[in-house]
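Below is how a single chain appears once it has passed through the pipeline. First comes the sequence as given, then the structure the pipeline wrote out for it. We keep one example in the README because the format questions we get most often are answered faster by looking than by reading.
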Amino acid sequence: MTKIGIVIKESSKNSLKKYDLQQFLIYEKFAFDIIIELSKNQNISVQMIKKSVLENIIPTVEKDSINLLIALGCTDEESNNGIRVIYNSSFKAERIAKLFQKSLVESTQLKDLNILSKGADSDRIGRVLDLLQIPCVIADPFPVSDGQEMQTLIKNYSVILKSYIATILNSLALI
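Resulting structure:
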């Protein structure tokens, strides 16, 4: 059985501004919708991992023997209103990142900012990704910085979701 972890950044709902709360809820719904759809496949086990600090995912990944880790909106980078999938420095993760990059650019109609490898020498996120011994991608389906742009993407929610799920299923052949 293939085990997939879907990571969303956990935040205190009380400390979020209105737009941040909307974004948090969209990511949570997106993760649940992925889990519901992928759980229909008996060969796949999917779990949501909510962590306020990305470093805290490592014990969960190891304990639960996760084979593929996909993070939604977990970067500290400013949004450029484009798609950039970040991956750890494994060959498998690079191939998976390319699949997500193509899929998200097509489904969101946002500009292609290319994939980006992050290793231990890059930054805090890179150090965490480097510690993971499994393919890991940060593939943000809603990389926008304001409510108006988010509304545009929400109108295409089902297209983005179907594309994202298809990409996850295609990625399984690579792990």
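The mean pLDDT is 85.

See the next section for the split statistics.
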